[in-house]
Write a structure and sequence with these properties.
Order of helices and strands: HHHEHHEE
Shape: elongated
Distance between the termini: 44 Å
Mean pLDDT: 89
Radius of gyration: 24 Å
Strand content: 5-15%
Number of strands: 3
Helix content: 55-70%
Number of helices: 5
């Protein structure tokens, strides 16, 4: 794969480098990271760009925090439904309504699909290929 990539770059007059280390250690990996961090900083200053100004990072952190807060609410809703006898499997719409987040149903679906893939939730009815068909509860 490496040689194929290098050959393709060469064929299109694109430069590439290969760095080889004798031993992969925390020190050698750290040195490579430091090397490339400095190379990016120096190159950016040469072309008059601030390589460390990333306005999108704060927005991404805020969005991730909102998803994590929603995930906590989803887990709380599923936990409450799973404590009932018999267990109450919920549709995505029911989970979204109980989380007071019907506008976030797609994110809720992705949270539940991730939980199911990691054996934290059980899809009782339906499949992830048809989100409206699923009913879900927490694994006991």
């Amino acid at each position: 794969m490496l040689q194929g990539t290098r050959s393709a770059l060469y064929a299109n007059d694109q430069e590439s480098i290969t760095v080889t280390v004798q031993e992969v250690t925390p020190k050698s990996i750290g040195a490579l990271i430091a090397l490339y961090e400095r190379a990016v900083g120096i190159y950016a200053s040469l072309i008059n760009i601030n390589a460390y100004h990333q306005p999108g990072v704060e927005a991404e952190k805020k969005a991730a925090g909102e998803v994590l807060a929603l995930q906590k609410r989803v887990i709380a809703v599923l936990n409450e439904a799973s404590l009932k006898e018999p267990v109450e499997p919920l549709t995505l719409e029911e989970v979204a309504d109980r989380c007071h987040a019907p506008e976030n149903i797609e994110i809720i679906y992705k949270i539940i699909a991730h939980m199911a893939a990691n054996d934290r939730a059980l899809i009782n009815v339906g499949s992830c290929g048809s989100p409206r068909s699923i009913k879900v509860h927490l694994r006991k």
